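Section 3.1: Structural characterization of target chains.
Under the original work plan, the team committed to producing a structural model for every single-chain target entering the pipeline before any wet-lab resources were allocated. The record below documents one such target. The sequence was received from the expression subgroup and is listed exactly as submitted; it comprises 397 residues.
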Amino acid sequence: MRSGLTREAPDPARRGRLRELAGLFFKLGSTAFGGPAAHIAMMEDEVVRRRQWLTREEFLDLLSASNLIPGPNSTELAIHIGHRRAGWLGLLVAGTCFILPAAFLVTAIAWAYVRFGSLPQVEGLLYGIKPVIIAVVIQALWNLGRTAIKTKLLAAMGICAAVLNFTGLNELILLLAGGLLMIVIRELPRGTTNSTASLAPLIGATSALNSVTSATAAATISAPFALGKLFWFFVKVGSVLFGSGYVLLAFLRADLVERWHWLNESQLLDAIAVGQLTPGPVFTTATFIGYLLAGPAGAAVATIGIFLPAFVFVALSGPLVPRLRKSPTAGAFLDGVNVVSLALMAVVTWRLGVGALIDLTTVLIALVAAVALVRYRINSAWLVIAGGLIGLAVGHG
């Protein structure tokens, strides 16, 4: 007779959802080149267009929630999707399966780097992949924009946010300003005095995140190298970092190179390059650094450290998102943040396009990929692989 303490297995429907999440995010973690904008576009293609797990509005709300907390945005979006699809187990499965393929690949590259002293040559591969990524992201921007841009006012806000971001204004400031502006526009004519009450859950979550950030920042003090210190350093980075891989570079350089002298400039730049050039999360730069400093154990410790805050932050904020959308005031806030999020994504796409569409061949690859996506609905992962093979065949670089 079974003990009453025996835990009941998940129901067949839940197990099926977990298998689907594992398969999808393992595939994306293995093929999603191009950084967060590309990852988000590929997730939209799979989760909204193909599988219809979420509506575009739900997807946009989760994207906005990811943008409003520190850490790797596309990884946090994967974790949000997993939680929405299959609860707490889904949260763990989606995030882990998105991270692991890149972490294993970066560990292998780090092993070769330590053994042979240089990075593998991947110019040809990226020459063909980058134009495909541009097509994938533009399609996602078009699809999401049709949902997010509900009024002329929101369209104008998006244009202003893109222009301001081009001039260098911080992404988080723009996101918060967009949301708060929509609240003001909605509430002022009504003379409402308790607008903040609708945002109480969001304010509470923000306070909790700030407390975690302060605690992890205080845990990092000057000391000789140790695995424990490496772990807490990357927990701090994952807890406080907003922005691009260039912001990550500034964080890592300040402590690892200038303050503690654990790495030299060349090693740090190579670590950033590996994170940018491999599929999956850009934060696997930490995996590379951990391997350089302490082998496989260092790679594991650094990877867990930098991604752990993302799981915590999504666990805290994820359940609030549906409730926020039900509140008219908080819904206005999300509408503003959604539009600004897409504006920031458009700026990143423009900058990527300048570096990707460099000759007739890359323009043709982008155009063919766009037709394949729109007309024939070919899976974006296959197009990325095809673009890489074309790049290798052309032999660019």
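Confidence is low (pLDDT under 50) at residues 1-9, 212-222.
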